[in-house]
Specification:
CATH class of the largest domain: Alpha Beta
Number of helices: 14
CATH superfamily of the largest domain: Bira Bifunctional Protein, Domain 2
Mean pLDDT: 91
Length: about 350
C-alpha cells in the first residue's frame, strides 16, 4: 500500500485561504512529506493581502508602520528570499518532494522543481522561460516569485502565478533610505514585475497544466488528496509559530551599513555610506542604471562620474572613480558595501580609505 501511495503525485487544492494559512499549509505539507507522505503539488490563493519575509531577511527593510496602517499582517516564512507583497491577484503553487529524490547540487535540484512550471505558465497565457539564476520570466519581466528550502527530510519550492501586481502598494510597504530610492524602486517594479498590462492570464489552465507537467517530470500518477493526520497536527503548530512575535522577529543578524531591495534577479536598488561618502544606485543585469553620488570633497567630480558610470558594468566602478582621489576611494568602498561584493576594492585602496577615515 505504501509503495502505491509513494508512486503518486498528491494534488491538494485549497482554494482561497487566510494569509496565515497560505503560508502554514505548505509548511505542514513539508512535514508530511518528510514523514512519508507522497510528493505533493498544492495550490492556494490568499483571500487578502499581506507581506511575507524570508527566514534570514532583515525585518527592518519592511515598513511595519505602513503595514499596520493598512491592516496587513507580516509573516516570516521558513524558506529564503526577501520581503514580498502578496495578495489575491496571485495563485500560489508549491511542489514538495523527499530530499532523497533530488540531485545533491542546489542549482540542479531547483531547476528540476521549477522547469515543469514553465508549461503551466505557457498554458496560462504567459510564455515563460527560466533564466540562469532560476527566475521565471516572460521576456525580461518577472511573473513568478519563488523560494526554496528544506524542512526535515523534504524539499519545498514555493512559487506564485502573478496574474496582476499592485506596484504602488508593494513599493509603499518597503522601508527605503529616502524618496529617491523609493521612487526608483517603484519605477523598476513597474518595469520588471508582473505581466505586461493587458495580458490575459488563465489560472485554471495553469493548475491543470501544472498537474500534468509535474506528474510527467516526476514520473508519478497524479491523484487528488487531502492532508494527513501528521499534517493537520503540524498545521496547528505552524499557525501558532508564524503568528508569534518571536518568530516574526527572526534570527539574530549583524546590522549592515548597506540597503538593498531586489526587484527581480539581476535588478535591484542599493544605497550605502562610507566615511561620509554616499551611493544610491539601481542595477539592471550587472550594469548601473540610475545613479547618485555624494562626497564632501568630490564637488563637481561626482556629477562627471555619474555620467561616466551610467550604463557601465559594476566591475568598472573603481577605475572610473580613481580620478577622484580620496573621494573616489570612499565612493568605491560605499559601492562595494552596497553591491554585496560585486564591486571589488583593492587592499591598497582599502588601507588608504581606512587611514583617511581615522
Amino acid at each position: 500500500m505504501k509503495a502505491e501511495q509513494d508512486a503518486r503525485l498528491r494534488v491538494l487544492r485549497f482554494g482561497r485561504v487566510s494569509p496565515l494559512r497560505s503560508q502554514t499549509l505548505w509548511h505542514a505539507i513539508a512535514e508530511g512529506v518528510s514523514n512519508g507522505a507522497p510528493a505533493t503539488l498544492s495550490f492556494m490563493r490568499p483571500d487578502s493581502p499581506y507581506v511575507s519575509v524570508g527566514y534570514h531577511h532583515d525585518l527592518g527593510q519592511v515598513d511595519l508602520d505602513a503595514c499596520e496602517r493598512a491592516g496587513l499582517p507580516v509573516y516570516r516564512r521558513m524558506v529564503g528570499g526577501g520581503a514580498v507583497y502578496l495578495d489575491e491577484g496571485q495563485l500560489f503553487f508549491q511542489i514538495t518532494v523527499a530530499a532523497t529524490d533530488l540531485p545533491p547540487a542546489r542549482h540542479d535540484a531547483l531547476s528540476r522543481l521549477l522547469t515543469p512550471a514553465l508549461a503551466a505558465f505557457d498554458a496560462a497565457g504567459l510564455p515563460a522561460h527560466l533564466d540562469r539564476s532560476g527566475e521565471i520570466l516572460v521576456g525580461d519581466r518577472k511573473v513568478c516569485g519563488h523560494g526554496a528550502g528544506q524542512i526535515g527530510n523534504a524539499v519545498v519550492v514555493v512559487g506564485n502565478l502573478i496574474e496582476c501586481f499592485h506596484h504602488e502598494t508593494a513599493a509603499g510597504l518597503m522601508r527605503t533610505p529616502g524618496r529617491a530610492t523609493a521612487a526608483e524602486a517603484l519605477r523598476l517594479m513597474r518595469r520588471y514585475v508582473g505581466p505586461e498590462e493587458g495580458s490575459s492570464v488563465d489560472p485554471v489552465a495553469f493548475e491543470h497544466a501544472a498537474v500534468r507537467s509535474y506528474a510527467e517530470a516526476l514520473g508519478r500518477e497524479p491523484s487528488e488528496g487531502r492532508l494527513t493526520g501528521v499534517e493537520r497536527e503540524a498545521l496547528a503548530r505552524w499557525d501558532r509559530r508564524l503568528a508569534s512575535p518571536e518568530w516574526q522577529a527572526g534570527p539574530a543578524r549583524r546590522r549592515s551599513s548597506a540597503w538593498q531591495l531586489k526587484v527581480r534577479s539581476g535588478v535591484y536598488v542599493v544605497a550605502a555610506e562610507h566615511a561620509g561618502a554616499r551611493v544610491e544606485a539601481s542595477v539592471v543585469d550587472g550594469r548601473l542604471d540610475a545613479l547618485r553620488l555624494e562626497d564632501p570633497e568630490a564637488s563637481g567630480g561626482a556629477s562627471a562620474a555619474v555620467q561616466a558610470l551610467r550604463g557601465r558594468p559594476l566591475a568598472e566602478v573603481p577605475a572610473v572613480l580613481a580620478d577622484l582621489g580620496a573621494a573616489g576611494r570612499r565612493l568605491t568602498a560605499a559601492f562595494a558595501a552596497a553591491s554585496g561584493g560585486e564591486v571589488a576594492v583593492t587592499s591598497r585602496a582599502r588601507a588608504a580609505t581606512s587611514q583617511e577615515a581615522r
